[in-house]
Amino acid sequence: MTLLEILMIAVGLAMDAFAVSLGAATGEQGTPLTQVLADADAAMYAEKLSKHAH
């Protein structure tokens, strides 16, 4: 996994977190929690891979 791929996952997580907080603030449905958790799992997996790559 390249650094670019890891950064793209991190940006995706940040956007999901923003969507959830914005949805909560406006009372609208944001990103489903299951998707946020799946993205968090993907980010942790990417982090593990990046540590092994070095």
Count of helices? 2
Number of strands: 0
Spans where pLDDT lies below 50 across 5 or more residues? none
Biggest pleated-sheet summary: none
Share of residues in helices: over 70%
Strand content: under 5%
Large-scale geometry: elongated
Structural class label: mainly alpha
Question: What are the key terms here?
Answer:
single chain; about 55 residues; mainly alpha
Could you explain the architecture of this structure?
- With 54 residues, the protein is mainly alpha-helical.
- The protein has a domain of 26 residues.
- It is built from two helices and no strands.
- α1 packs antiparallel against α2.
Summarize the structure.
The protein is an all-alpha fold.
List the helices and strands and how they pair.
Elements: H1 3-26, H2 33-53
Helix pairs in contact: 1-2
